[in-house]
Every structure is written in structure tokens, then in C-alpha cells.
Amino acid sequence: MLLTGFSTFVWLLYMAMLVLAVVALVLAATAREDAYRAADKQKKSFWLIILGITVAVNLFVPMLFLQLAGAVASIVFMVDVRPALKAVSGGGGRRGGSSSDGPYGPYNGGR
Q1: Helices 44-60/2-30 angle, 10° precision
Q2: Are 82 and 30 in contact (CB under 8 A)?
Q3: Which is nearest to 74 in space by CA: 2, 6, 26?
Q4: How far, in Å, CA of 10 to CA of 5, rounded?
Q5: Sequence-separated contacts (24+) of 77-84 with Cβ below 8 Å
Q6: Which helix (H) or strand (E) covers residue 102, if one does?
Q7: What b/e readout covers 77-92, taking b as 16+ CB neighbours within 10 angstroms?
Q8: CA quadruple 46, 51, 54, 60: dihedral positive or negative?
Q9: pLDDT band for position 11 (50/70/90)?
Q10: How many Å separate Cα 106 from the centre of its chain?
């Protein structure tokens, strides 16, 4: 009974790592190439390759060490790269702001 519970836990852990990798891959694929350069991050192709390998490892290679390395790469993308891409793409997390807002408030054209 204990072994069944542990195998269920491990299966859920693998599924969580797979979902995280797939979400990170989709978000990396939908971001613009110039946003990566503007955010001073690695190229889009780099992240697509790393996250694609992560998804493939999670699907086809049951090696925990490789899956954990892929999970780290996915977390780095979600925590570091994605917010930087959103900031340079205009989706900086401001609620109710406009496109003319600067870092210190709205730009009113020198009035």
C-alpha cells in the first residue's frame, strides 16, 4: 500500500514537471525574437531547444536526473526570462496602465 502511494506521488511529480516544461515551451515559442535581444537574454532558438529537449526527456526518457535538470531550466525560464520578455514587450504587469506610461508615470508630451 505504501509503495502504491509513493508511485502515485512520483507519477504526479513527473506530470507536474511535464506540464511545466510544455507551458514554458509554448510561452517561449509565442514570444517575439526581438524581445529576447531587447531583454538581453539568450536567443529564442536557445530556449526553444532547451525546453524542447526538456519536454522530450520528460516524455521518453525516465531518468530523474535529466528530468530535474529540465525542471530547473523550465523554472529559470518562467521566473527570469519570461518576466523580462513581458517587460520589454509592453506587458510589464501594470494593471490599468497605458502604452504611454513610463517607468515614473504617464508621459503627457511635455505639458
Answers
A1: 160
A2: no
A3: 26
A4: 9
A5: 77/24, 77/27, 77/28, 77/47, 77/50, 77/51, 78/20, 78/23, 78/24, 78/27, 80/41, 81/28, 81/36, 81/39, 81/41, 81/42, 81/47, 82/24, 82/27, 82/31, 84/39, 84/40, 84/41
A6: strand 101-102
A7: beeebbebbbebeeee
A8: negative
A9: confident
A10: 29
Sign of CA dihedral 66, 68, 70, 76: negative
For 64-85, write each residue's pLDDT tens digit. 889 899 999 999 999 999 999 9
- Residues β-bridged to residue 102: 105
Residue appearing with cell numbers 507536474: 16
Query: pLDDT tens digits for 24-60?
Result: 999 999 998 988 988 888 999 999 999 999 999 999 9
50 touches 73 (CB < 8 A): yes
Looking up cell 515551451 gives 25
Query: Is pLDDT of 102 > 70?
Result: no
